[in-house]
Design brief:
The protein is of the alpha/beta class. The chain has two domains: 217 residues, Spore Coat Polysaccharide Biosynthesis Protein SpsA, Chain A; 209 residues, UDP N-Acetylglucosamine Acyltransferase, domain 1 (3 Solenoid). Helices cover 17% and strands 33% of the residues. Bound molecules: uridine-diphosphate-N-acetylglucosamine and calcium ion. The site of uridine-diphosphate-N-acetylglucosamine has 27 residues, from strand 1, helix 3 and strand 10.
């Protein structure tokens, strides 16, 4: 089987410098959705037809299993497929997909391919408003005769509501001949791929149709309005699958998944969350409202309060996080770790039951177990040129408003008094303070405003 993906169109109505098929749905380019779907069908050849200005399309989507054919100028869908023919295998079926129709299901395409085993098969759909589409013209007993484009259709043909989605499975052996016989003698002066239907009928080859389960599967994107509509459809489908899988969603209309979320039992997610990349939520994880999680693994029973932002981080079981916590790449939290409001953690490992509950920056640190990091603590990890490491051993207590000037180590069980600026290692089990001694100046008066 061959798959040809048509992606040469300009997409003028997107009003964008980005080629249409690179606009994202769920964070992934439209054409990438199509390529991924195509790949799931395990074709022998996959060819993308791209057009003028499409070099960025090619460089963005390049993959070992994709062949690229440039169509220049663009003389219609038949002309587009003809450009791909030399790159295709000559047996089996050739499936034509559109790079701007992102949500077709693999099962639907399998159905179409199956219907077309010894035939030409067309994915069609009945639309309440068929305006703009090619119409499927059938004879008195219901056999498909041809496709007529809107601009070439008579009033009677325009009344037909069954339309061509553009997706077809064509016998590869007939492709070159049929495409070679297309003419552009029509209202748009284009070589219509759809004209091969009449050629197949003339040869006595059966023409069959298959239908998608949902209309959204065959909707294309020509504008930002349609892009936004399909984004919602796609997100709704993802949310529905999560609900079916047992996740509690406070509102399935208010979640965005731009990647893959896997989940255990009794996971619950509040409104407004965005999940990107690969996110793993173990059993009984609770995600509060308006959190952004990208490439994050969350251990069982962890609770994430509102407005957290985590990226490339691993959170152990039974963690208590947020509200307003930020975990940056390279963060690894052990079991029962608490990271509270306005605490930023970067490239740091924090051991079991340690806590940093308020207003802190922990960067390039290794923190043991049961450590308490007081409010306002800062690891001064950057000297202006290089990053240095802070090590805090088990059971240490870091007083509020401490600066740890790295590289520095706080020994096991050590206590740092509040306001300490630690520039040398703090020994274990001792109190280290760097403050000046407190004095009170009796007789001191506040300055007064001078009266003029
Ligand atoms: C096409 C079909 C029509 C169908 C409709 C579904 C033809 C003649 N008509 O019409 O029956 O109902 O799609 O949306 O096939 N493309 C190229 N090179 C070209 C022309 C188009 O790569 O020279 C690509 C476009 O990028 C797009 C797809 O082919 O992905 C369809 O092109 P478009 O111009 O949208 O076709 P329609 O006129 O809408
Ligand atoms: Ca179109």
């Amino acid at each position: 089987m061959n798959i040809v993906i048509l992606a040469a169109g300009q997409g003028k109505r997107m009003h964008s410098n980005l080629p249409k098929v690179l606009h994202p749905i769920a964070g992934k380019a439209l054409a990438q959705h199509v390529i991924d779907t195509a790949r799931a069908l395990a074709p022998e050849k996959m060819v993308v037809v791209y057009g003028h200005g499409g070099d960025v399309v090619r460089s963005t989507l390049a993959a070992d299993d994709l062949a690229w054919v440039r169509q220049e100028p663009q003389l219609g869908t038949g002309h587009a497929v003809a450009q791909a023919v030399p790159a295709l295998g000559a047996s089996g079926q050739t499936l034509v997909l559109y790079g701007d129709v992102p949500l077709t299901r693999v099962e639907t395409l399998k159905r179409l391919l199956h219907a077309g085993k010894d035939a030409l098969s067309i994915l069609t759909v009945d639309l309440a408003n068929p305006t703009g589409y090619g119409r499927i013209v059938r004879d008195a007993v219901g056999n498909v005769q041809r496709i007529v484009e809107e601009k070439d259709a008579t009033a009677e043909e325009k009344a037909i509501r069954e339309v061509n989605t553009g997706i077809m499975a064509i016998p590869s052996a007939r492709l070159a001949d049929w495409l070679g016989r297309l003419s552009n003698n029509n209202a748009q002066g284009e070589y219509y791929l759809t004209d091969i239907v009449a050629l197949a009928v003339a040869e006595g080859l059966p023409v069959r149709t298959a239908q998608p389960d949902g209309e959204w599967e065959v909707l294309g994107v020509n504008s930002k309005v349609q892009l936004a509509e399909l984004e919602r459809v796609h997100q709704r489908n993802i949310a529905e699958a999560m609900l079916v899988g047992g996740v509690r969603l406070a509102d399935p209309a208010r979640i965005d998944v731009r990647g893959e979320v896997s989940y255990g039992r009794d996971v619950s997610i509040d409104v407004g969350c965005v999940f990107e990349g690969k996110v793993e939520l173990a059993d009984a994880v609770e995600v509060g409202p308006y959190c952004v999680l990208k490439n994050v693994k969350v251990g069982a029973g962890s609770r994430i309060a509102a407005f957290c932002h985590f990226e490339d981080a691993v959170i152990g079981p039974d963690g208590v996080l947020g509200p307003y916590a930020r975990l940056r790449p390279g963060t690894e939290l052990g079991p029962e770790v608490h990271i509270g409001n306005f605490v930023e953690v970067k490239k740091s490992i924090i051991g079991a039951q340690s806590k940093a509950n308020h207003l802190a920056y922990i960067g390039d640190a290794e923190i043991g177990q049961r450590v308490n990091v007081g409010a306002g603590t800062i690891t001064c990890n950057y000297d202006g040129a290089n990053k240095h490491k802070t090590i805090i051993e088990d059971d240490a207590f870091i007083g509020s408003d401490t600066q740890l000037v790295a590289p520095v180590t706080v020994g096991r069980g050590a206590t740092l008094g509040a306001g300490t600026t630690l520039t040398q290692n703090a020994p274990p089990d001792a109190l280290t303070v760097s403050r000046a001694k407190q004095v009170t100046l009796t007789g001191w008066r506040r300055p007064q405003k001078v009266k003029k």
